[in-house]
Amino acid sequence: MSFAHSPLPYDMTALEPHISKETLEYHWGKHHKAYVDKLNAALENNAKLSGASLEEVIKSSEGGVYNNAAQVWNHAFYWQCLSGNGGGQPSEGHFLTALHDGFGSFEAFKETFSQKSATLFGSGWTFLVKNTQSGALEILSEGNAGCPLVHDHFVPLLTCDVWEHAYYVDYRNARPKYIEAFWKLVNWSFVESNYAAA
Q1: Chain segment 164-174, per-residue pLDDT in tens
Q2: Angstrom distance (rounded) from CA 95 to CA 91
């Protein structure tokens, strides 16, 4: 059993000028692939996790296996959250209503999400999740390889990767500028479909 390095859902230049081809060559082509390779190597002789899905590996492992599995999933999810035709705001409907209910307005949500992304110490991820216990939308900050799949009551809808390798080629150490560009790429159709499925 081995996990595949999932292909990008668009061309390597599709996110320019906000995220460059060079960034994708390193971020998807090297970093993401390295997590896949390390995970497969770690699972090669692991009878306990033989045949497990990626989600099952994340929920039942720790240490290096967890870190690499979570990073494989987080990255595959992140690529889906972006689109060269993205940006703007969600369409009128249940998801936009939920954003208004949870944060007061779409702009207030963006401001809160951006602030949490910009101030997350070190490397990590910011997620918008649906809490299936309360039905509410929440923002979850996860350090390093943190993944919302470990929480049974969180369904991930959107993520922003704030590891330096996500933005350093294009923005150097200016994480807030990368986050500003991120909003011009968000694939709201994907986010809305995640909400509808939750």
Answers
A1: 999 999 999 99
A2: 8
